[in-house]
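Quarterly update from the structural biology core.
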Amino acid sequence: MKIFLDATTLIALGEIGELDLLTSFDGELWLLTPVNQEVTTEPARSNLSERIERTDVLIVGLGDLLEEAKDAKEEAKRILDEETVNGDVAIITKVIQSRRKEVDVAIVSDDRRLRTVAEGLGARVTGTIGIVVRTVAEGRLTEQEGKNLVRRLDSRGLHMTGELRGRADRLIEDATRENGDED
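Predicted structure, tokenized:
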């Protein structure tokens, strides 16, 4: 499975130095050039650069040489009502191309519009909280570590409502029970 990373999650995890959580996925991690260029804040930028150097994250462009890629890019721009290629257009372009080839694809993003469009196109979708829950479910973090991580994310830029924080806690608790590693 191809997993396309969005700047929203890269920034959130990069701000707190937790990009290693991305290794909880089974599949190829793809970082599209326009998305990579959107991660400009520190320390997220430096943490992402370091992570790229020591991992299997594939940094790729859109492949504009192929007619198929041009068609997919134009369709993505139309769907998103964008005039230029940005990270969202790049991701949706790859989702469209993958769908045409009947390849399973996922995106990791906290951007509601991007998530909705990608899901509508048949992609699997998760976000930063989903990554934390998945890591707890795998037993790589305890329930308390997962909850603490959510608090760190909230305090460093992934601003959450009380309702979302409560939901994240419940998902973490459920993941802990399913994993059988209750504190």
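The mean pLDDT is 88.
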